[in-house]
């Protein structure tokens, strides 16, 4: 088991900046704004041969009382899961009553706590640290997380409190094991509620306030002896409604989470209906080539007429999702949630399919026999050879002549044909068309002396007949 380090403190003391330093990443959102981090964010760090987990937590006072209470619960949960706690304080703001309250709470939890004095760049660390001794946690460790100063000394102190690992893993598996599942959708579609329902605990903040989740949260999970990583993402609204710079960062992180996933569970709010933004966001998922399962949430509160209307809207507004499985669920009550994993497994396997070249050639020949490509400038487009060019999503490369003139309708025909014959469910497929170069293009045919003699005789013969 990797050791766990929790970062705790008031809002805007630099926890997320230190998190990025310890994980050598930019996974946590950083801005000069209190209350930015609202959920626990996990990251993997490594120094030498020792690896560890870092947990970034929300500050202990937030923008609203309801969220503040939830964030405090998240922070205390992170502390209880950790091996050592780094309690960050702000050297520039000095000691505050909130720092004293946090210190008092940490002392009774029985975890090793290191007091970290951040933002000491340009200050006298000894003079600045004097007032923080009154917290009774120990001597403050001065650092400047934004510039990376003091981090190595801090980690040496951390090693003194971490449990010794008797046998380090020779090659630790990827930090986010198994199938990575991203929950994507508009704000307040129920992504965090669904994730908590699957995990069986209040792992991420779930509130009726749209936009509660701003970071993408990665959570390892095991079900039926299979490993998964669940990714809760921030809701994505129309760009015209995104005025907050922090929310714009969250949109970017949502798109990055899509790229990091193997399968996307896209949540639609059945009570709100299908919006243009849903179609746009689904297009981004398809552009990324990710396997897809569509979950229509809040299904239990609809009347039979409303359910039929939603199904009709799915066919009318999202016709390009004919390859994806659709599941009608209630994240709040758990209805249909268990069926999602079977659909995820089918989509994941379809996205990773490997098809032999002879099998693809057989299917291409059948498709051509049923429906020939059209004529272009009096010449038939010929598709001669096909092979697989990649996975996730499956990429099939077709070679022929004049393929750049192949109509979009015929490309759709081929795409649907291969999907049906290979029984690919839940994954888009990509067809790449390549035209071979004509080796004689731009070259004149040089006649041999005998050919030139025959040509002259033929021309004389034709001239004699014309007279």
UniProtKB/TrEMBL annotation:
Residues where GTP 1 binds: 9-16, 56-60, 118-121
Keywords: GTP-binding, Nucleotide-binding, Repeat, Ribosome biogenesis
Binding residues annotated for GTP 2, in chain numbering: 185-192, 232-236, 297-300
Coiled-coil residue windows: none
Ranges of Basic residues composition bias in the record: 452-467
Biological process (GO), any one: ribosome biogenesis
Subunit structure: Associates with the 50S ribosomal subunit.
Function as written in the Swiss-Prot or TrEMBL entry: GTPase that plays an essential role in the late steps of ribosome biogenesis.
Name the record gives this protein: GTPase Der
Gene: der
């Amino acid at each position: 088991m990797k050791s766990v380090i929790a970062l705790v403190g008031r809002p805007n003391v630099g926890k997320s900046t230190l998190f990025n330093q310890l994980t050598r990443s930019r996974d946590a959102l950083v801005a000069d704004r209190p209350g930015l981090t609202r959920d626990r964010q996990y990251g993997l760090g490594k120094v030498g041969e020792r690896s560890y987990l870092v947990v970034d937590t929300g500050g202990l006072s937030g923008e609203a009382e309801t969220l503040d209470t939830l964030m405090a619960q998240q922070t205390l949960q992170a502390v209880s899961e950790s091996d050592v706690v780094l309690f960050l304080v702000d050297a520039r703001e000095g000691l505050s009553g909130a720092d004293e309250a946090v210190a008092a709470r940490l002392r009774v939890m029985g975890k090793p706590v290191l007091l970290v004095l951040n933002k000491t760049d340009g200050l006298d660390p000894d003079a600045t640290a004097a007032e923080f001794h009154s917290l009774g946690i120990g001597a403050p460790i001065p650092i400047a997380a934004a510039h990376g100063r003091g981090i190595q000394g801090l980690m040496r102190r951390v090693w003194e409190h971490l449990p010794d690992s008797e046998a380090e893993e020779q090659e630790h598996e990827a930090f986010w094991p198994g199938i990575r599942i991203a929950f994507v959708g508009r704000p307040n579609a129920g992504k965090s509620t669904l994730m908590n329902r699957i995990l069986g605990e209040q792992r991420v903040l779930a509130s009726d306030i749209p936009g509660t989740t701003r970071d993408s949260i990665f959570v390892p999970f095991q079900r039926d002896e299979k490993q998964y990583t669940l990714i809760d993402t921030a809701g994505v609204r129309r760009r015209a409604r995104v005025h907050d710079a922090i929310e714009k960062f969250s949109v970017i992180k949502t798109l990055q989470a899509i790229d990091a996933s193997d399968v996307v569970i896209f949540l639609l709010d059945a009570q709100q209906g299908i919006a243009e933004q849903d179609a746009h966001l689904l297009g981004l998922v398809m552009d990324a080539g990710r396997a897809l399962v569509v979950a229509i949430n809040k299904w239990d509160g609809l009347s039979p007429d409303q359910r039929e209307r939603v199904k009709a809207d799915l066919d009318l507004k999202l016709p390009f999702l004919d390859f994806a499985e659709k599941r009608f669920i209630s994240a709040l009550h758990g209805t249909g949630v268990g069926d999602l994993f079977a659909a995820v497994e089918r989509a994941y396997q379809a996205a990773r399919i490997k098809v032999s070249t002879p099998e693809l050639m057989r299917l291409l020949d059948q498709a051509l026999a049923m429906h020939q490509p059209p004529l272009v400038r009096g010449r038939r487009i010929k598709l001669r050879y096909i092979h697989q060019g990649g996975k996730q999503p499956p990429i099939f490369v077709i070679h022929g002549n004049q393929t750049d003139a192949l109509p979009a309708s015929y490309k759709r025909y081929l795409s649907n044909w291969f999907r049906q014959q290979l029984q690919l469910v839940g994954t888009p497929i990509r067809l790449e068309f390549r035209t071979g170069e004509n080796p004689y293009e731009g070259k004149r045919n040089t006649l041999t002396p005998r050919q030139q003699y025959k040509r002259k005789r033929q021309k004389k013969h034709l001239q004699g007949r014309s007279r």
